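Handout, section B. The chain below has 301 residues.
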Amino acid sequence: MEHLNREELKQNGFSEDILPTIKEKRNWGISNYTTIWMGSVHNIPNYIAIGGLFAIGLSVGQVFSAIMVAAILIAAILVLNGHAGSKYGLPFAMLLRSSFGNKGAVIPGVLRGVIAAIMWFGFQTFAGSQALAILIGKIWPGFLTLGGDWNLLGLSLPGLISFLIFWAFNVALIYGGMDLLGKFANILSPLVYIVFGGMAIWAINLAGGIGPILSYTGSGISGNPIIVFLGAVTVIVAAWAAPMVSVSDFTRLSRTPKDQAVGQTVGLVVTYLLFAVASIAIIVGSEIAFGVDAMSNNIIS
């Protein structure tokens, strides 16, 4: 019956990419979903966001609470939105058609594409390219002076070269498909923790231990503390807009609904717990060691 339904759908103009995933290809387990979002949590834009929370006066306890509340909300939304994908193997594009019809699905599909292309992919690629430019500059100092004052859309020649290299690498991963992405995440995720863990240890040593960091109170909130706290949670959750709506593209590969539910919940909550510790240690430790101006410059750069 499934074979006949798939053939009928193909004859009606549906491509293979948006058809339900067959059982033989649904091989993602708990470990895949535990690791898939780890790299998405530990990244430069997220650290910038946490730096912004300290900049508006939140204390260590308030920032930590905002991060963990946001983590629980993100995990819950991803698990619930991913249920149909894990149960029936439906990708995001097919779910849109089931709600909006073939023609109506174009509108939410384009809206999601704009968010994913500009925020999820574009901003992350730009931030990664900046880090790549710094890395190349350490190895080859002359790289950062290439092109002089030349720029294209605000990018210097070194910045443009770094952006194109980083963009090409990400596109290659996309063309590699979900299997390659899953394998890449399993390899890269431990390395991410080594890097950010090392940075956290470095910052704690700079601050003179964990005590000064935990006792940091911030400059104080200006305005209604409840509204400010909800705003802080929203800032963290907002970065997940694209994967929240299209998470079924990942959960359609799940062996069972339980695998994606347990994997995503454990992976996100535990990862955000470690992220909270690392981000707070790095940002507050840097401020204690170098002062507010130094911390602000580090966040902006």
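Note. Confidence is low (pLDDT under 50) at residues 293-301. Compare this with the example in section A.
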